[in-house]
Amino acid sequence: MDGYSENDLAVMRPANLRTNGIEASKVTANPENGRRALRDIKNILGAPPCPPAVNKRRLPEMPCVEDKTKQLVGHRPITRRFAASLANNQHRQEVPNPWSLPLENERHKKTISSDSAQNQFESFTVIDLDEDMGASDLTLPSYVKHTEAMLEEMDALDNCDLEEVEMEDLNAEAIPDIDSCDKKNTLAVVEYVEDIYNYYRKTEGLSCVSPNYMSHQSDINQKMRAILIDWLIEVHYKFELVDETLFLTVNLIDRFLERQSVVRKKLQLVGVTAMLLACKYEEVTVPVVEDLLLISDRAYTREEVLAMEKLMINTLQFNMSVPTPYVFMKRFLKAAQSDRKLELLSFFMVELCLVEYEMLKYPPSLLAAAAVYTAQCTLSRYRTWSRASEWHTDYAEDQLLECSRLMVDFHQRSATGKLTGVHRKYNTFKYSYAPKCEPAQFLLDTRL
C-alpha cells in the first residue's frame, strides 16, 4: 500500500482488492476513450509529475509544484472552464484597478512572482502602507477628515474631563476623612452621616422662626423671653439633663410663641411645659410633673401643665424632629478636630446666643459654625478656619464674621448684668472655667 498512486500505472493493487467486481490488476488507462487515470484526490504536495494529457485536443500543461514555498496553485483537474479562466488572466493584467491607491513610489514596492513563466500567473504587488500613508500625494475623502476631526475633539474633551477629575481628586485628598475613626462604631452611621446632615441643612429652615415674631405679642417682650430662657438654663443644669433637651426646649418655645399669643402670667408655664415635652423626646429618665411644679414654686397646678402640653403639641402639629444648633455643633467640632477645651468654649458661645432674641435671624447651622470659629480664634489668638471646617460647614470665614463679632460681645458681657446663668454654669470645674478665656477682641477690628 505504501507509495501507491492511482496515476502511476506501473503500481498494481493487491490481488484481493476489487473495483466493481474487476480485479485491480486489470485496471489500466484506456487511451481510446479519451480519459486518463485520476490523480491523487488529496492534492498531496510533492507528488510525482502529472502525465501528459491524452485528449485529442491538447490543453496547456500545468507545471507541477516541486517546492512548497513557491506553490501558488495546487493540483487541479484541467477542465474547459478552468482552461478558459487561465487564458483570460493575461487580459486582466492589462486592465488597471480603479480602486487602487495612486502610489507610484517604486522603492516601497515588493514584487512576488512565481518561478513559472506561464501566462496563467500574474505578478502581485505589495505596498508598504505604513510608509506611504504620509505621502503628500495621498488624498483622503472629506468624510474621513471630518470623522478624524470629531475624534480629535472628543479626545480633547476627554482629556479636559480627566484633568477636572484629577483636580477634584486632589482637592478631595486635601480634606481629611473625619469619619475614618468611627468606621467600626455602628452608632456613628458613617455610611449615612453625610446624607443625614444634608437633610438637616435642607430642613433647618422649617425649625426657624421669624426674627420679629415678638411684635405680634401684646403682653410679653424680648426681655421676658431672655429672662425665661436664662432661668431654664439653670433648671436644665440642676436636673442634669442632656444638651439636646435644652436646645429643643428653646426651639419649642419660640415656635409656639410665634403661633400663639400668650399673657405674661402664662409665659413661665409655656417654658416649663416645653421642657417637659423636650424631656419626653430626648431623655431616658423624664422628670415628673410634680418636680417641674416644685421648681416653679407651685405657681401652676398639674391640670394647667397638662392642658398647656396638649395645646402646645397640637399647635406644633407634633413636629418635634427639627435640627437644632446642637446637631450641627457635634459635626462641626468633629471637622475642626476639637479637644475638650475647644468643645466647652464652643458650647458656651452658642448657649449665650440662646438667650439673645436678636440671634434668631441666623439659622442653626450658621450659629454652630460661628461658635466653633469664635472659640478657635479665642484659644489661638488669631483667625483660623481650616479647609476641612469650611468644607463640612459649607460656610466661608467671611460669612461667619458678623455672627462671630456678636458672640465676642456676648462673651465680654457674660459676667455682668442680670442674666448671668450661662456664665455661672460654665464657670465651674466641670466645664473647665471656659468663660475665663480672654475674648477675641481682635475680631471686632477685622474688616468684612
Descriptive report:
The chain has 448 residues and is an all-alpha fold. It contains 15 helices and 4 strands. The chain has helices spanning 80-94, 129-132, 142-174, 193-207, 222-239, 243-259, 267-282, 289-295, 302-315, 325-335, 340-355, 364-380, 387-393, 397-413, 421-426; strands at 18-19, 22-23, 109-112, 124-127. It has a two-stranded antiparallel ribbon. It has a two-stranded antiparallel sheet with strand order 3-4. A hairpin with a 2-residue loop joins strand 1 (18-19) and strand 2. Helix 6 (243-259) crosses helix 7. The radius of gyration is 50 Å and the shape is elongated.
What summary fits the major beta sheet?
2 strands, antiparallel
Beta strand count:
4
Structural class: mainly alpha
Anisotropy-based shape? elongated
Q: Helical residue percent? A: 40-55%
In short:
By secondary structure, the chain is mainly α. Helix content is 48%, strand content 3%.
Q: How would you summarize the topology of this molecule?
A:
Elements (H helix, E strand, L loop, with lengths): L17 E2 L2 E2 L56 H15 L14 E4 L11 E4 L1 H4 L9 H33 L18 H15 L14 H18 L3 H17 L7 H16 L6 H7 L6 H14 L9 H11 L4 H16 L8 H17 L6 H7 L3 H17 L7 H6 L22
Helix pairs in contact: 5-7, 6-7, 7-9, 10-12, 10-13, 11-12, 11-14, 12-14
